[in-house]
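User: For my dataset I need records formatted as: sequence, then structure tokens, nothing else. Please produce one.
Assistant:
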Amino acid sequence: MIPCPIGERAPYDVLPLANREVIRSLDYFIVENVRSARRFLSRAEIGKPIDTLEFAELNEHTRPEEVERLVGPLLEGRSAGVISEAGVPGIADPGAEVAALCHRKGIRVVPLVGPSSIVLALMASGLNGQSFAFNGYLPVKPPERLRAIKHFERRAQTEHQSQLFIEAPYRNMKLFEELLAACLPETRLTVAADILEPAEFIRTATIREWRALPRPDLHKRPAIFILL
């Protein structure tokens, strides 16, 4: 399970050099997107031509029966690297299906160290890192979306559990405004955008404080939202 940088940082600005030796030993990769995986590997100093590598895609369009085919070479003794488009595979990104199938078939699964925007946002938030839940995307339709926001706010309050979620970057500002309108004044909200990038923005404030602050520009910027 091979992490790759979040954003445009050079690979070994955020990845340990030890990862490079593992990547260099591989010639078969199961990836979310072949184009972005080839780009990452070309920047990762792997010491071999990219055209000599074999790629197979694993994403939201991959059918369950196709996952079996992806694991076929591993049953023949080959090793594979699993790469998502950004961050760590298997955490809010494809990869879990392959890992689960490998466990069922007795194939060792090895996670490498790398950046997870979910963990990095929580680390910097000042909110509860002892108990937290990542909830993925909120519903798109307004009534269900409002119910989800209120549900996660209640859960944060009653369980003192940090509630993390994400949104499509072009809808970030709409979600931010909905949070300010729907949540209680003393609820704390963390907004973390462009993590590990030069334009990184991470701030925690109460809803009351956010309402009085200038609005951050979150449009089309990868972001994590946390309620507590």
